[in-house]
Amino acid sequence: MGVILKVLPGQRAARILLIEDNKGDTILLQRAFSRSGTFVEFIVKDRAEAALEMLQSHQGRYGSLRPDLIIVDLNLPAMDGLKFLEMVKSDQETLGIPIIVMSSSTSDSDISESYRRHANGYIAKPLSTHSYDAVANQIVEYWLKLTEFPSARV
Fold first, then answer.
1. Kind and range of the H or E run holding 99
2. Number of structural domains, the chain?
3. Taking a C-beta distance cutoff of 8 angstroms, is the pair 45, 76 a contact?
């Protein structure tokens, strides 16, 4: 289910696929992006398998649910975030979608393995509401405002 925040007529919201099984973390992140003042549509999945199925169902069509950015937790039930990364980055249709790992783990092995599987970034989960705001603002500034993407993403 998507939550569209602050979209004006004629504007397209930035689309973020959030794969997170902790409802509290999901709410904190959505609220932080809302406070950033940027137009964001969240597609939230609590399982990596469901996110992968959604992405694969739109392959080749750049369908209406193709995200501009994916944020994935590492510790998910069944398929973990590392396996999800591996599968998305090994598929020609989805490998160009930037993926940020957001995890409570700051283990060197988790960070290294995420980058080895082609994560575009790794962020330790914030510990406060203020820190969530800072993370959301930095993601908005870099990934949604500064970074250029091929026109096929829209």
1. strand 99-103
2. 1
3. no
Burial degree of 116 (CB within 10 A; 0-12, 13-18, 19+): exposed
pTM of the model: 0.88
Amino acid at 150: P
One pLDDT digit (tens) per residue for the chain, 154 residues = 444 444 444 556 889 999 999 999 999 999 999 999 888 999 999 999 999 999 988 654 445 678 999 999 999 999 999 999 999 999 998 999 999 999 999 999 999 999 999 999 999 999 998 999 999 999 999 998 888 876 644 3
Over the range 70-84, which residues count as b (16 or more CB within 10 Å of their CB) and which as e?
A: bbbbbebeebebbbb
Residue 154 lies in a domain: no
Assess if residue 30 is contained within a domain. Answer: yes
CATH code for the domain in which residue 136 is found? 3.40.50.2300
- Confirm whether 112 is domain-assigned: yes
Q: What residue numbers bound the domain in which 100 lies?
A: 2-147
- Determine contact, residues 57/28, Cβ cutoff 8 Å: no
